[in-house]
Design goal:
The protein is of the alpha+beta class. It has 10 helices and 11 strands. It folds into 3 domains: 2-61; 89-207, Alpha-Beta Plaits (2-Layer Sandwich); 220-351 and 415-435, Pseudouridine synthase I, catalytic domain, C-terminal subdomain (Alpha-Beta Plaits), CATH 3.30.70. Residues 242-351 form the Pseudouridine synthase I TruA alpha/beta domain.
Length: 436
Amino acid sequence: MNLRWRWRWRRRWVRRRLLELEAENAKFSSQLANCRCHEKEDKRSAVSCDSSLETSRKSNSGSKKITKEIVKEKVPGYDTRIMNHHCKRYVALKVMYFGQRFYGFAAEAQMDPTIESEIFKALEKTRLLVGDKKESHYSRCGRTDKGVSAVGQVIALYLRSNLKETCENNEGSRKMVFKEQYEGEIDYVRVLNRALPDDIRVFGWCPVPLGFNARFSCLGREYYYLFWGENLNLLAMESAGRKFIGEHDFRNFCKMDALNVHNYRRKVTSFAISPCDVRCDENQLWAIKIKGSAFLWHQVRCMVAVLFLIGQGHESPDVIDALLDTDRIPRKPQYSMAPEIPLVLQSCEFEGLNFTCSSDSMQALRVHLANECQNYHLKAAIFHEALQSCLPIEKDQRSLDNGTVKKKSSHVPLMSRPTEPSYEERRAKLNTRHKD
């Protein structure tokens, strides 16, 4: 009697579950019919729903044995294809990050973590990503290297939206028209900053047209390079740096990529050296500000490295003219680049882009950045205290050191150093490898 009652209860549960699934299926079908975002329904969702109904029917009319199935959720992440029926809009995001612990911005490098990978993890976690990375029409303005930071990086992609969109067919392409007001839209800054790590933050967002590309629509980029000005001839550095202004062939001021880059002419629009509001004892922090339409691989760090040699008195400012004359110097002299940590992508310039942020998100952003500043000041204070606590060198130790003073290596002028292969030699070597 007890077994018969259990069987009746299970059969009633199956029937009730079947009705619930059919109601959900009807609800989804109604939503897809009323939505004009996509003319085609998501076949995979339909197949999944039909298979669930078929399974329920078989369990109702099958044998008395019922097998319990445990459905395991996919953790972490989610299938972005299920978001395709949601409204979406094409937006640009202004991003800042402190790059010390990252292996660059782009996720293509086979190293982790990268800024890009962390951003997409946050997009998936917050369910803002519609489709995969390719379907989102993702683009980035700058591809900063390992250790480089940014306060004005810009990316663009499709994100889920609360506002309804109107889709019109225009010769096979879909033209999207969005409401101009921002009321009722998702607070992208607040949502993303809650999911991002502490050293990455979104500053603002802006709707952009469909043809927008964060890389190719950019009119100019500005980099800052921070350095301590002690024992440097800043006037000589600034005089030499102004020689970069204009359009030049910068193959002697970059890491050459003969496989992908064939034109090494770039335009620098401004150059300046200015003090910052930071001091350490008697040492002043300075910033080299370089602005241009685009930059080559490691171009800024190579330019700064040569400027440091000029500021230290090892090279004359005229060495800039010589290195920019690629007919005279077709091969780059071997020299080390400037360190990557002080380099910052300060801003990216676009026409008509006005990034916005809600007052609540801005307040939370200010509080977070202020806390990060305090944490780094505490760390600096600890190291400063350790510096002050160092024991003075005893006279006996000084005499020992004077007896074993290492000879300082003399500076080798850039024009006398070994050179790297020229662009033509690199291309010839690549062609030989390709033939082989």
